[in-house]
């Protein structure tokens, strides 16, 4: 049956990307490619445009990543484009994320209160109407 | 005799019978409320205090009854009513000696309704707001210390919510969405426990995309500020598995930001 | 009269001093509206100073409240009663008068469709005999506005592109005692679609691929609804080819001479705006991820209206929320937007007690507790117990809709059920077991369910004085006539418990003796079965389908352990089509086949026993192969192949107001069940001899004891029936009443003209 292609994140536009060359200004990058998906954790000196393509054959299996492209635009001191790097799906490493999480507080609704609160809200009608 | 019959016929119109409403004096109502509160019947006590305000709004007891109504409702778990009374007290008597306590009751009512991180944190935000008001308006009140501590707990809770959504996107391998959520924790909730995990998750996300220099920098910042954190061990292991070591870019905005903030360790 | 009376009283009361305090505000004669509701509205309050002006305005306010509440004739008067403690009571006397709802709904300028047809589209109804029962005839301007919108959508759906509502007013008519609503419409001309073409401005997307997704073709009547749906499916189609910004804009060119519209769908890329952040707010019970996983849209993705609408629809369909509102606000950058999803949880816990009657199970009651958003995790839990005349049971079921994070509904059911089948087959069964199931949606219309079931069936043949169904094998003292072969001279006598006595056949058979095949199947059988259900459904509405196809095939294999070993496949297909307004035609076909594997014979309980579900007008297990020894009517032995067809027309019963929910139906059914494949002879009394079994098969000629062979009557003849039914969506739940007259039946078939099921959902 029809294969479904889903694009997550930035929609790569080859034409606009071609216009970015070392020396281009920040404004030029922003007008051609738009706001980056994210910037480097280090002083916003690098723009990352992250695009991911997934395919789904049947609805019950989550779509699998078929293509992942990251365009990294590096800027020098006075915010001119130093270089543009492209990362593909193959560059990524595959590993399991850490399952441990930092504990948080807040009332976890107790089972009984939650069940009866749900029932108590005005639908205790005898005829299941 | 139809008058007698009417009493039993439920459909008969309500006949008007003159009946004098005798108002119990305010002090009796107030003491009745105190007595009920004393033996734990807070909801009943709150009702009595509310009656004082309704029947004798101009009596000397009204002000104190309003405060007691907020207190009784809070203890009785009727948080919405407690919020109503506390808010009215703070607006009516802002410079009163008990205004700080009323503000504290207001904040604690929101605080008690804050659910776990997988649900809407609106109540937590409102509690944080009320506590901030308390600290700024009544800087030398006895509740400031506890408020400051609770503000930190709430910030930790809000950071926990960002992490929850960040991990959701990370598990679905939507790295862009995950990274942006973890960045919110690093920039806005820097003083919470979650910042260590947020940095480690950045290492994971960037490694998964193959952008190694970002992973290194995030791990370096994590190591620099939290050298003995378990999260740093995990990040370091991940990098070394890939044959890399955490390398910190000195001029980085984030390590400068960390330098200035209250150094935790 | 009321004004004068009010003024008179008012003047006398004004002598009381102005500064007096109001002691109490009292109402007399308010039946329809509660006291505290009225109190809340008035400005005269207890303990406030008494002011005649406020009392006067409160009187008028009360009259207005009653007018809006459907009591236009209500009269309100007030009086003041001074008390000895210097305070006064204010008393409002209300005479509510009879109901004044919407007396008439008139239409002006409607030529294409009759006023009654338009009225049927509206929620507001005119007052009639049933006014005391319904509230839909109370005048409510908001509802009238919604009704006008429904009428506009109806016209736009039927080609009237220029339709406009030009007048909409409601006047209270004292003479008629109610509101008269007049709606003026300007229909304009019905348009047809001249030609339809697609223009794609996205390189890489050809107009041709998109064209097949259209729902409108040249020559059709202009249908705004279909165009809207066409646009949405075309956008989804282009998006699915990797163009997240895809947008389809319809442009229409009117040709008012020959009333046609030229339609052009322009496929283009919308503005490159991305979703910066998705905030989920108001979820006090449902967890964040349960909502977030329903959205195809993720943070950082391209913003596309079709995905946002689909997300809102999908969240509504979950049934966990009273209200779902998706709004967007500008993000931190010009090309960024923030999506806010505000939900309001609703109680999804259900505690229902329901009762009912069905000719198959007799009187039956059910108590069920269910929660469809368990612990806010979106899981479904249901515990139900049934207690009835001929059947009782308990079931527990659980479903996790996103098993292992995939859209895979995994769940299990545990059940135990006791069925007293003696009315139709003189045996009782107790079945207990469980099923593990996985629901796999493949596409929008096609889904599959895989399951493994393990259950044990215990079959018992009662042998009591009231139900002597086994007394040919086990004589009952003082009841069964017996003889003792060792003492022939004694002849026939009533069994007195002595040894060596044998029931005398066929006397013992006349009281409903169970067939040998049934007796042989007594005891426990364990079935371990793997099965699948493939479902294809394009029904427009699951509860009350008007159009679409529903088809289901259920292949099953039993034999991984357990006693039963067979392959079974059953299937069913229903086609709904709206013949004309609200009249729905249904064509149904069904069939099934079971065959044993591993050379063993089929057990009786595994075979098909068909009744009204195959051909209406027949009793449960009333169709199918029989054992002619003993009473054939209650000795169905099941068959291995069945198929059937049914044609039905459902229509609203004329003259009955719509809100009663009454529908009629006419139908014709036909079907058959044949092919008994169980064993035909059993040495029940294991004396090494099969009584009655000889070269000629099974013959009971002159046999003193019950034959140990089955005299199988197996006919392939088509059983058919015609009939009518009444369907009622009653406040107690759906009730259905069928009367069917059997046209053709085979020997031993049992008919049952009336069939009634209803009361509560079960």
Break the fold down into its secondary structure elements and pairings:
The complex is a heterotrimer of chains A (129), B (265) and C (762).
Chain A: E1 4-9, H1 14-18, H2 26-33, E2 38-39, E3 46-56, E4 64-75, E5 81-87, H3 111-120
Antiparallel strand pairs in A: 1-3, 2-3, 3-4, 4-5
Chain B: H1 2-8, H2 26-38, H3 42-55, H4 61-75, H5 79-92, H6 99-112, H7 122-137, H8 144-171, H9 175-188, H10 194-209, H11 212-225, H12 230-241, H13 253-260
Helix pairs in contact in B: 2-3, 2-4, 3-4, 4-5, 4-6, 5-6, 6-7, 7-8, 8-9, 8-10, 9-10, 10-11, 10-12, 11-12
Chain C: H1 2-13, E1 22-28, H2 35-41, H3 52-68, E2 75-82, E3 88-95, E4 102-108, H4 115-121, H5 141-157, E5 164-173, E6 178-186, E7 192-200, H6 207-211, H7 224-239, E8 246-255, E9 260-269, E10 274-281, H8 288-292, H9 305-318, E11 321-330, E12 336-345, E13 349-358, E14 362-374, E15 379-388, E16 391-400, E17 409-420, H10 422-425, E18 428-441, E19 446-460, E20 481-483, E21 493-494, E22 502-503, H11 516-520, E23 523-537, E24 548-562, E25 566-580, E26 583-596, E27 626-627, E28 641-652, E29 662-674, E30 693-694, E31 697-698, E32 712-713, E33 719-730, E34 733-744, E35 754-758
Parallel strand pairs in C: 1-3, 4-6, 7-9, 10-12
Antiparallel strand pairs in C: 2-3, 5-6, 8-9, 11-12, 13-14, 13-35, 14-15, 15-16, 16-17, 17-18, 18-19, 19-23, 20-21, 20-22, 23-24, 24-25, 25-26, 26-28, 27-32, 28-29, 29-33, 30-31, 33-34, 34-35
Tell me the number of helical segments of chain B per DSSP (H or I, 4 or more residues long): 13
- Indicate the structural class of chain B: mainly alpha
Q: Would you report the number of β strands of chain B?
A: 0
What's the mean pLDDT score of chain B? 84
Shape of chain B: elongated
Q: What is the percentage of strand-forming residues of chain C?
A: 35-45%
Strands ordered across the widest β-sheet of chain C: 13-14-15-16-17-18-19-23-24-25-26-28-29-33-34-35
How would you explain this protein's 3D organization?
The complex is a heterotrimer of chains A (129), B (265) and C (762). Chain A is α+β, with helices and mostly antiparallel strands. Chain A is 18% helix and 29% strand. In chain A, strands 1, 2, 3, 4 and 5 form a 5-stranded antiparallel β-sheet that branches. In chain A, strand 3 and strand 4 (64-75) form a beta hairpin. Chain B has helices at 2-8, 26-38, 42-55, 61-75, 79-92, 99-112, 122-137, 144-171, 175-188, 194-209, 212-225, 230-241, 253-260. Chain B is elongated and about 90 Å long. Chain C is mostly beta strands and 762 residues long. Chains in contact: A-B, A-C, B-C. Chains A and B meet through strand 3 and strand 4 of A and helix 8, helix 9, helix 10, helix 11 and helix 12 of B.
């Amino acid at each position: 049956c029809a294969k479904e292609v889903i694009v997550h994140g930035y929609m790569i536009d080859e034409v606009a990307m071609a216009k970015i060359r070392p020396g281009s200004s920040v404004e030029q990058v922003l007008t051609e490619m738009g706001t980056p998906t994210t910037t480097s954790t280090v002083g916003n000196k690098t723009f990352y445009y992250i695009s991911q393509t997934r395919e789904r054959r049947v609805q019950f299996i989550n779509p699998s990543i078929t293509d992942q492209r990251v365009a990294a635009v590096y800027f020098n001191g006075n915010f001119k484009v130093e270089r543009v790097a492209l990362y593909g799906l193959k560059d990524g490493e595959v590993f399991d994320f850490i399952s441990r999480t930092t504990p948080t507080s807040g009332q976890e609704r107790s089972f009984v209160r939650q069940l009866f609160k749900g029932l108590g809200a005005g639908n205790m009608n005898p005829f299941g109407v | 005799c139809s008058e007698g019959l009417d009493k039993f016929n439920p459909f008969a119109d309500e006949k008007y019978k003159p009946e004098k409403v005798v108002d119990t004096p305010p002090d009796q109502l107030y003491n009745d409320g105190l007595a009920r509160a004393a033996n734990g019947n807070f909801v009943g006590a709150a009702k009595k205090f509310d009656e004082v305000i309704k029947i004798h709004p101009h009596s000397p007891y009204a002000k104190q009854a309003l405060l007691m109504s907020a207190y009784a409702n809070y203890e009785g778990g009727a948080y919405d009513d407690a919020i109503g009374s506390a808010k009215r007290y703070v607006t009516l008597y802002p410079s009163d000696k008990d205004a700080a306590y009323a503000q504290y009751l207001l904040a604690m009512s929101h605080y008690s309704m804050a659910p776990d991180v997988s649900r809407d944190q609106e109540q937590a935000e409102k509690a944080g707001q009320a506590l901030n008001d308390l600290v700024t308006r009544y800087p030398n009140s006895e509740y400031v210390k506890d408020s400051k501590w609770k503000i930190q707990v709430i910030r930790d809770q809000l950071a926990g919510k960002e992490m929850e959504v960040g991990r959701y996107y990370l598990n679905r391998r939507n790295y862009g969405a995950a990274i942006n959520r973890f960045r919110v924790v690093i920039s806005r909730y820097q003083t919470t426990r979650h910042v260590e995990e947020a940095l480690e998750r950045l290492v994971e996300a960037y490694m998964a995309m193959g952008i190694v220099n970002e992973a290194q920098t995030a791990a370096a910042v994590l190591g620099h500020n939290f050298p003995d954190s378990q999260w740093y061990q995990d990040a370091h292991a991940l990098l070394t598995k890939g044959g890399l070591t955490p390398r910190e870019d000195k001029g980085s905005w984030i390590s400068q930001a960390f330098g200035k903030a209250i150094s935790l360790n | 009269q009321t004004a004068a009376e009010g003024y008179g009283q008012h003047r006398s009361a004004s002598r009381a001093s102005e500064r007096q305090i109001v002691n109490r505000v009292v109402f007399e004669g308010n039946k329809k509206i509660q006291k505290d509701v009225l109190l809340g509205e008035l400005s005269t309050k207890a303990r406030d100073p008494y002011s005649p002006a406020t009392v006067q305005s409160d009187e008028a306010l009360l009259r207005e409240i009653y007018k809006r509440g459907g009591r236009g004739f209500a009269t309100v008067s007030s009086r003041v009663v001074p008390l000895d403690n210097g305070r006064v009571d204010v008393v409002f006397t209300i005479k509510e008068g009879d109901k004044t709802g919407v007396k008439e709904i008139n239409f002006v300028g409607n030529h294409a469709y009759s006023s009654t047809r338009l009225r049927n589209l509206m929620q507001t109804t005119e007052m009639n005999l049933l006014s005391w029962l319904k509230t839909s005839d109370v005048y409510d301007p908001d509802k009238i506005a919604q009704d006008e919108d429904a009428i506009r959508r109806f016209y736009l759906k039927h080609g009237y592109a220029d339709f406009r509502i030009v007048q909409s007013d409601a006047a209270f008519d004292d003479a008629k005692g109610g509101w008269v609503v007049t709606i003026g419409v300007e229909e304009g001309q019905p348009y047809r679609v001249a030609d339809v073409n697609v223009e794609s401005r996205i390189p890489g997307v050809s107009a041709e691929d998109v064209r097949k997704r259209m729902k409108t073709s040249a020559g059709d009547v202009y249908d705004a609804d279909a165009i809207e749906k066409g646009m949405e499916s075309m956008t989804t189609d282009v998006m699915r080819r990797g163009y997240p910004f895809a947008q389809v804009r319809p442009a229409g060119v009117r040709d008012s001479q020959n009333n046609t519209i030229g339609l052009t769908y322009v496929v283009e890329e919308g503005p490159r705006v991305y979703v910066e952040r998705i905030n989920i707010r108001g979820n006090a019970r449902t967890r964040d991820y349960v909502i977030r996983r329903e959205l195809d849209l993720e943070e950082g993705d391209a913003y596309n209206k079709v995905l946002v609408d689909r997300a809102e629809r999908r969240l509504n369909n979950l049934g966990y929320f009273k209200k779902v509102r998706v709004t967007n606000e500008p993000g931190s950058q010009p090309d960024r937007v923030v999506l806010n999803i505000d939900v309001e949880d609703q109680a999804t816990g259900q505690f229902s007690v329901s009762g009912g009657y069905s000719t198959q199970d007799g009187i039956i009651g059910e108590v069920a507790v269910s929660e469809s958003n368990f612990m806010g995790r979106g899981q479904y839990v249901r515990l139900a117990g049934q207690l009835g005349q001929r059947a009782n049971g308990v079931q527990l079921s659980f479903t996790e809709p996103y098993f292992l994070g995939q859209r895979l509904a995994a769940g299990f059911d545990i059940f135990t059920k006791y069925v007293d089948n003696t009315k139709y087959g003189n045996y009782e069964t107790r079945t207990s077991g469980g099923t593990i199931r996985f629901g796999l949606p493949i596409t929008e219309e096609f889904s599959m369910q895989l399951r493994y079931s393990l259950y044990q069936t215990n079959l018992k043949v009662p042998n009591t004085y009231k139900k002597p169904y086994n007394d040919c094998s086990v004589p009952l003292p003082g009841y069964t006539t017996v003889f003792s072969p060792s003492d022939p001279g004694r002849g026939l006598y009533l069994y007195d418990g002595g040894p060596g006595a044998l029931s005398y056949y066929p006397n013992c058979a006349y009281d409903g003796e169970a067939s040998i095949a049934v007796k042989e199947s007594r005891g426990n059988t364990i079935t371990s079965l793997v099965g699948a259900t493939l479902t294809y459904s394009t029904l427009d509405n699951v509860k009350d389908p008007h159009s679409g196809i529903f088809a289901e095939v259920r292949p099953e294999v039993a034999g991984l352990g357990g006693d039963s070993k067979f392959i079974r496949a059953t299937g069913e297909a229903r086609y709904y089509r709206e013949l004309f307004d609200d009249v729905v035609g249904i064509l149904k076909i069904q069939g099934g086949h079971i065959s044993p594997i591993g050379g063993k014979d089929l057990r009786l309980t595994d075979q098909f026993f068909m009744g009204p579900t195959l051909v209406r007008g027949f009793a449960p297990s009333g169709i199918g192969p029989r054992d002619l020894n003993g009473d054939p009517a209650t000795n169905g032995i099941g068959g291995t192949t069945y198929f059937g067809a049914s044609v039905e027309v459902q229509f609203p019963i004329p003259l009955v107001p719509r809100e009663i929910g009454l529908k009629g139906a006419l139908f014709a059914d036909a079907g058959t069940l044949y092919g008994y494949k169980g064993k035909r002879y059993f040495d029940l009394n294991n004396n090494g001899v099969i009584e009655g079994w000889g070269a000629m098969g099974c013959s009971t000629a002159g046999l003193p004891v019950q034959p140990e062979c089955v005299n199988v009557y197996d006919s392939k003849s088509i059983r058919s029936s015609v009939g009518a039914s009444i369907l009622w969506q009653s406040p107690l739940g759906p009730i259905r009443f069928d009367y069917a007259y059997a046209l053709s039946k085979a020997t031993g078939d049992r008919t049952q003209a009336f069939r009634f099921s209803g009361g509560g959902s079960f």
